[in-house]
Amino acid sequence: MFKEANKNNLCQVSLTGIRSLVLLGLLIDRPLSLDEIRQEFLKYNIIENSNSDDILRIDLNTLRSMGCEITRAKKSTNNKFILTVHPFMLDITSEEMSVLKQAFNRIKSDLNIESAIHFHRLFTKIAKNVKNVNIAEELIGLSPVKHYDIKLIDKIQNYCKEQKILNFIYKSPTAKNEFQKNVKCQEVVLKNNKVYLYCFDLVNKKALTLNLDRIKKIISCLDNDGDNDNTVEKFVVKFKLKEFGIQGLSEEEKILEGDLTKGFLVEGNYYNEFLAYQRILSFGSNCTVIEPLDFKQNIINKLEKMKEIYNV
Amino acid sequence: MSKVSQKKNLSSIQVIKTLQILLQDDYSMNDLVKKLNADEPFPIFNNSVISKYINTCRYIGISIPKVNNRYFVSSLPFGFKLDDIDINTIKTLQFIVSNKMTKKNNSIFDKFITKLSRHSKRNITTINQEEYIYSFELFEKAIAKKVKIRLLFKNQDKLDCIPLRISQEKNKTFFEVFNKRVRMIDTNRLAGIQILSENYIEPFNINQVAIFKLKGNLAKRYQARDNETVELNSDGTITVTNTDENKEVLLSRLMRYEDLCEIISPKTYRDEFLQMLVDTLKNYGK
């Protein structure tokens, strides 16, 4: 972290100042015992072997007097000094936080799972170094994946790359008990602020969209030996869009023809039929389904049922 | 209490004080002398002492450049570690701020980036801020002054309206405005914006509270958002109170919930939702 001091070259610098800054840097990095501090100071050539530990204690006091909160080295801290607060923590103003929040909210809805995790890691890293606890909480609160186990997401993303066969305990909100699922992993996606695993159910032979938060325990993970070649065929819908409204097109959709004056003919390739219904309905009156015909009829039925609720 | 526990190094304290001041802003030597002596009972900091303390900081690797006779910290060896992915993530935000937000917000965000850079192990280069989009400035100015605006569309249309806020959905920037109803205008459709002299009084509660009821499986699996509270009803349904969500975004989301959702209030939302259903059914000749 620091360069070794050359004692022949210490004119116009304060050696005690160097010690304090080095000590601060070391304690920011990790908790240390008195002996570990001594070893580090010797390594950087900023104390002599003959110096007593009192020098180190005075350096610790100096940092405390400057606003550092350093615990005592006791049994419960494994005889290490732990720095909990220091005056060099980042002071983010509420005005700065507000701009950061506005900027992030402008891109939030377009994030894919990878970039959501990148933002999560960045916000967490900054939050750990922020002076004001409320600002730190607000920063972490911005992350769309804050409620998820990031390590699990990473792990399952890797399984998806290799299309592994996963057996796990899943807790569906609608079922009383947890149950086992045996699936072929396909893709981890972020949709509407939730992380889903797109996978193929090897028992019921159908495409599933499972909330990653509900995977309780992974029982086994096996290589895909090729016998389970259940390529999921995307559910294709052709529809007309008068205008995009508040929705932009997603990666699943492509414009076949049209322009702003005539409207657009769009093809949507959705992971399953359920996601297709959700997406089409969310376009509201801007959208008219062309095909498949049974899907179109189901949309009409759904809209009529919805209308009945308000026609009381 | 032993004597050791009370002893401190005065010179170390002064080095740390110097570093603390340098982390706040860029200062000339004269500014530093004034700033550092401000809290002292008598002046102890002078040019030579401060130079020594700056050298001390530099000696251990704290980067303190002197540009235009002003000193500042550009990175700390014990600051937090930002990797390449972090830097690119920050640049994504910088790009949004510099292209889609006002000059004032740009300058606030620049200060934040400078702070991040100073407290981190590596410099974050600020991206070149080209011209800010002037319309965003005008829009926010109109909100602040509570005056109406005229939106000039590329297709020659005009719309006199009350400016509400700038919002972003699906990578598109919208001006939320009020003219008979709240409208979201895609800024890509605009050719210009004109500030009118007519003042307005907010005619309604912009941050509307919406209440909707969910039933069936959706009620069981619904995960409330940060701006929502949920109440469980005795019949197994849930009542969700949603605040401060853009109406069009909310109604589009509620469409996805099919007949498992009913908007309870406000009445305007109910009416508009019903109208949306009627209009969508008309697309199919119903």
What does this protein look like?
The complex is a heterodimer of chains A (312) and B (286). Chain A is of the alpha+beta class and 312 residues long. Helix content of chain A is 38%, strand content 23%. In chain A, helix 5 runs antiparallel to helix 6. Chain B has three domains: 58 residues; 116 residues, SH3 type barrels (Roll); 75 residues. Chain B is built from nine helices and eleven strands. In chain B, the strands form three sheets. Chain B has a five-stranded antiparallel beta sheet with strand order 6-5-4-3-7. In chain B, strand 5 and strand 6 form a beta hairpin. In chain B, helix 1 packs across helix 3.
Question: Numbering strands along the chain, what is their spatial order in the largest sheet of chain B?
Answer: 6-5-4-3-7
| Proportion of beta-strand residues of chain A | 15-25%
Radius of gyration of chain A, rounded?
29 Å
Number of strands of chain B: 11
Termini separation of chain B: 88 Å
Q: Strand-and-helix sequence of chain B, N→C?
A: HHHEEHHHEEEEEEHEEHEH
Sheet having the most strands of chain A: 5 strands, antiparallel
Biggest β-sheet of chain B: count, sense, barrel?
5 strands, antiparallel
- How would you state the average pLDDT of chain B, rounded? 82
Unreliable stretches of chain B (pLDDT < 50, length at least 5) are: 126-132
Q: Percentage of helical residues of chain B?
A: 40-55%
